[in-house]
Amino acid sequence: MRSGGFKVISAGLVLALGALASGCSSIRDHRGYIVDQTLVDSVQPGIDNRQSVERTLGRPTFASQFGAKDWYYISQTVKTPPFRKPRTSEQTVLRVQFDQAGNVASIDRRGMEQVARLSPNGDKTPTLGRERSLLEDLFGNIGAVGAGGMGQAPTGPGPNGS
């Protein structure tokens, strides 16, 4: 009886540890366009146009607003470790360039080299100027608004002046 109880307790302990360990795994999330390499390879420069690219790859994630009207298809995989901020682990930016006639001029692909890792300087952003307290922000302008022209009638050409 004693060894049977030990087996049940040890099996329960193993299951509990397994459940705890599975709760600490990273969450993987895909965002944006799902790249299908076969479809991307089927788009040919000089042969395809905007309409055929849209039929093959779908609507772009966004189109450029300035200069040439390039189409961009963006795909990201984001991992979120337990108790931490999400981080981009994979990224693909597919750019389709068109010529003046609307035909595909070129297709290029970029990856993680385009991701900028920023590390902010602490919790505060340094600003120019002097440090002011909350009371100075609230009451600092009392008496300053309109103090230079108080009680004087407008002069000169204008709707209220002569």
UniProtKB/TrEMBL annotation:
Pfam families: BamE. It comes from Novosphingobium aureum. Residues 1-21 form the signal peptide. PANTHER family: OUTER MEMBRANE PROTEIN ASSEMBLY FACTOR BAME (PTHR37482:SF1). This is Outer membrane protein assembly factor BamE. Keywords: Cell outer membrane, Membrane, Signal. One of its GO terms (molecular function) is protein-macromolecule adaptor activity. InterPro entries: BamE, BamE-like, BamE_dom. It comes from the Bacteria.
